[in-house]
Specification:
The protein is an alpha/beta fold and 295 residues long. The chain has eight helices and 16 strands.
Length: 295
């Protein structure tokens, strides 16, 4: 078995290789031709090998790189290919809302499936996207990774910034054996929200260590408002935790200004303190390889 990582997931790919038993790990050679076209080449012997290809698809370039790397692995004679997409970009457009639009999530899923034998993702925007992959696809969760990190930190209460994250906060609370609550959110526009405490708050907030838990932090508006609301309740410390830390524009600095700590998993490179999903991905990869027939 070998692990190959694209440029969007270099560090995570190396961690996955260690979790799989220190299997060989490789990085492709990439360059741009004068006309802007991307060139990739994979080194090493992949013939008759099981290959795990790790690459998030945050940008258009990441998507193209992944598709080219998949073909390169196949051209190298790999036996089976498990594609790991830690952050699955283009996931928000999972259906056609207006005539003339593409359904980008299913489209990307179908194309990734062409050369893959199995696909592993982490915390999709919608789990329904799994049905669009044409090969076996499994969605890992970033919650256990964040929980492993938070076990080493003081935590009194888990907070979901809205009711949509109720299951996430509840599961995190179960893993940490701590109480949780969900705030009431009213969205004003794409970057502004109003938040309120629920009618029943499980514990007294004053002086407590509180962690705001979300799946994706992009512009950070909701997390900032949640932190301000909790600060008015005189909590002792506030942390923000997420699976996918996009931190667009100045989001990280804005959140840092109103929290004590920011945690994220390593599905994307970012400046937050990291909790690694590598053990969770490696476990699923082993399970999926065990189910696949040899080519």
């Amino acid at each position: 078995m070998q692990v190959v990582a694209g440029t969007a997931s270099t560090a995570l790919g190396e961690r996955v290789s260690r979790e799989l038993g220190n299997v060989p790990f490789g990085l492709p050679y990439l360059k741009r031709f004068p006309d802007g076209e991307l060139y990739v080449r994979i080194g090493g012997q992949l013939e008759h090998e099981d290959v795990v290809l790790v690459q998030s698809t945050r940008s258009d370039q990441d998507v193209l790189e992944l598709l080219l790397l998949e073909d390169a692995v196949r051209q190298s004679g790999a036996r089976r290919l498990v594609v790991v997409v830690p952050y699955f970009g283009y996931a928000r457009q999972d259906r056609v809302f207006f005539p003339g639009e593409p359904a980008s999530a299913p489209t990307l899923a179908r194309h990734i499936s062409l050369e893959a034998d199995a696909i592993v993702t982490v915390d999709l925007h919608s789990s329904e996207t799994l049905q669009s992959f044409q090969k076996p696809a499994v969605e890992a969760s970033g919650i256990p990774a964040v929980a492993r990190l938070l076990r080493q930190r003081p935590v009194d209460l888990l907070v979901s910034p809205d009711k949509g994250g109720t299951d996430r906060a509840r599961r995190m609370a179960q893993l940490l054996d701590r109480p949780w609550m969900a705030l009431h959110k009213q969205r004003i526009d794409s970057e502004h929200v109003e938040l309120q405490l629920p009618a029943q708050v499980p514990i007294s907030l004053e002086g407590k260590h509180v962690v705001i838990v979300d799946d994706v932090i992009s512009t950070g508006g909701t997390v900032v408002e949640a932190a301000r609301l909790l600060a008015r309740e005189r909590v002792g410390a506030i942390a923000a935790a997420c699976t996918h830390g996009l931190f667009l524009r100045d989001a990280f600095e804005r959140i840092k200004a109103v929290t004590d700590t920011i945690y994220s998993t390593d599905t994307l490179d970012n400046p937050a303190e990291k909790a690694s999903v590598a053990p969770d991905i490696a476990q699923i990869v082993k399970q999926e390889l065990g189910k696949l027939p040899a080519r």
